[in-house]
């Protein structure tokens, strides 16, 4: 994880909020370099194949959550992956049908029909494009590192929890098969990395169950696979305000949850690969992918953390080729090789996903030594993000709660950094000078009014603000209250030393806020 700083008070001068993404030529060069290198191309292709296999059961499961046919989830994963490979701003990141989006749109299809679901996804994509062009990705700067750590840990836990249903109420032989798969994934890279270990585990366990006629749950048991290609469809919904009233709330939720999960996952991949991605392009690219998905009968989606980690961290993919091939292989597997895919044991995919969750979890963040050194506020923010995300299964709630707790704790901490010092020891010259030091905003300026001796001070009071900064109207209102308290006792207050930004804010608001402000 990068050394992400906690939210801090903004600098008076505007600063760029997002470093420019790598030039498009760099992305193109990366893809071309992979195409020219057989070894690199093999890594990208095999990574795409492993991801495609892992996407199948999850897409089917998410379809069940959304109350639609498995084809809707599978087609969504295909169109999302292929489209984002061209439009996205984060190479090697995987986008597909996701549980977060499935939970949001779950009421739509059962209540209003699949056409309303498709219209919802198209509208969500339009909203994402607009938000992307408006620069919503810049808000990522306000996500503290502790929230990012909590996000990673929570998603690792959710990935593991999603495999538990495949390990309960199943034949006993599932457990040794999962164990063998984990052993292969852990030990094989010590001998060779020519072929991704997850792919070897899938092929090995599939061959063992087929040749040994072992009866265990398979991918085919999760739901029927499609037998035809997706086709362009126009949602048959009335073009009325009533339709907009129905789909708009769901579309907005899909857009926000999808962007949040995608941008956080992109940031995580940036850290793993030590490269920078274009978050703004990723934001509107997600919108474009959802628009395409909606018109091809898919249920929408966003970046998927589990398969992205499988692609980048375990399989070693680094370019858009792996993302594109993941979508292509997914379609080929479910349509052209559906009978073969159907016999893949779920135990093999469970083993892969368990190792993905183990690899994604930030174990350093929960090490006793780290917890002893880490400020309690940081640990509190991280745990809040984890608990809320895991409890609600909603990334937006978890990250929102984590950011809110971080803001509150930060405000409390900064509130104690403001000091008021009396500079002179006597009032023989008829003047009292106070020096105010620190960052003054709603939390730190509340107690400022109590730091002065209104009754005991001489007629002339000077407040030196040369080592302070005024950030909001609350502070200006506090300074007005101080002036008023001295004025009621017939004393005069002079404020000196304000920097340009503070003086501009103070001059604009002083005396104009009213008694209630």
From TrEMBL:
Cellular compartments annotated: Membrane
Residue stretches making up the STAS domain: 421-517
SUPFAM superfamilies in alphabetical order: SpoIIaa-like
Residue ranges crossing the lipid bilayer per the database entry: 45-66, 72-88, 116-134, 146-164, 170-188, 195-214, 247-269, 319-337, 343-361, 381-411
Biased composition (Pro residues): 9-23
Keywords: Membrane, Transmembrane, Transmembrane helix
Membrane association type: Multi-pass membrane protein
InterPro entries: Membrane-Transporter-like, SLC26A/SulP_dom, STAS_dom, STAS_dom_sf
Domain of life from the UniProt record: Bacteria
Disordered: annotated span: 1-29
CDD domains assigned: STAS_SulP_like_sulfate_transporter
Matching PANTHER family: SULFATE TRANSPORTER YBAR-RELATED
UniProt-recorded name of the protein: SulP family inorganic anion transporter
Organism: Cellulomonas xiejunii
């Amino acid at each position: 994880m990068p050394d992400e700083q906690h939210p801090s008070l903004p600098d008076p001068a505007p600063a760029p909020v997002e470093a420019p993404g790598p030039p498009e030529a760099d992305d193109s060069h990366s893809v071309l370099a992979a195409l020219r290198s057989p070894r690199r191309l093999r890594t990208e292709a095999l990574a795409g194949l492993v991801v495609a296999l892992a996407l199948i059961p999850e897409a089917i499961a998410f379809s069940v959550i959304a109350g639609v046919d498995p084809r809707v989830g599978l087609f969504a994963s295909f169109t999302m992956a292929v489209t984002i490979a061209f439009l996205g701003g984060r190479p090697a990141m995987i986008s597909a049908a996701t549980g977060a989006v499935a939970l949001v749109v779950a009421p739509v299809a059962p209540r209003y029909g699949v056409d309303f679901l498709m219209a919802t996804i198209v509208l969500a994509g339009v909203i994402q494009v607009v938000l992307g062009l408006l620069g919503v990705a810049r808000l990522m700067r306000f996500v503290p590192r502790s929230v990012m750590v909590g996000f990673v840990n929570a998603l690792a836990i959710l990935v593991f929890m999603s495999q538990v249903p495949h390990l309960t109420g199943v034949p006993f032989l599932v457990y040794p098969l999962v164990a063998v798969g984990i052993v292969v994934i852990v030990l094989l890279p010590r001998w060779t990395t020519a072929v991704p270990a997850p792919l070897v585990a899938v092929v090995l366990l599939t061959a063992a169950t087929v040749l040994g006629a072992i009866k265990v749950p398979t991918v085919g048991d999760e739901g029927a696979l499609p037998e035809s290609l997706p086709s362009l469809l126009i949602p048959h919904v009335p073009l009325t305000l009533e339709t907009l009233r129905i789909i708009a709330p769901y579309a907005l939720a899909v857009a926000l949850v999808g962007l949040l999960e995608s941008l956080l996952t992109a940031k995580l991949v940036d850290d793993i690969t030590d490269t920078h991605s274009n978050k703004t392009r990723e934001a509107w690219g997600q919108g474009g992918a959802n628009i395409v998905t909606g018109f091809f009968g898919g249920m929408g989606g966003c970046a998927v953390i589990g398969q992205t980690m499988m692609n980048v961290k375990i399989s070693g993919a680094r370019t858009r080729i792996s993302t594109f091939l993941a979508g292509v292989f997914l379609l080929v597997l479910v349509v052209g090789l559906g009978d073969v895919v159907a016999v893949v044991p779920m135990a093999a995919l469970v083993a892969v996903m368990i190792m993905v969750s183990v690899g994604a979890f930030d174990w350093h963040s929960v090490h006793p030594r780290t917890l002893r050194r880490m400020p309690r506020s940081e640990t509190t923010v991280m745990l809040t993000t984890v608990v809320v995300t895991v409890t609600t299964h909603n990334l937006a709630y978890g990250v929102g709660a984590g950011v809110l707790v971080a803001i509150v704790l930060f405000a409390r901490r900064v509130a104690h950094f403001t000091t008021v010092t009396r500079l002179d020891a006597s009032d023989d010259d008829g003047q009292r000078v106070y020096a105010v030091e620190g960052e003054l905003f709603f939390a730190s300026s509340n107690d400022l009014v109590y730091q002065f001796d209104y009754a005991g001070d001489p007629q002339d009071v000077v407040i030196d603000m040369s080592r302070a900064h005024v950030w909001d109207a609350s502070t200006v209102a506090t300074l007005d209250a101080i002036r008023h308290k001295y004025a009621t006792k017939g004393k005069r207050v002079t404020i000196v030393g304000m920097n340009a930004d503070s003086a501009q804010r103070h001059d604009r608001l002083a005396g104009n806020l009213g008694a209630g402000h």
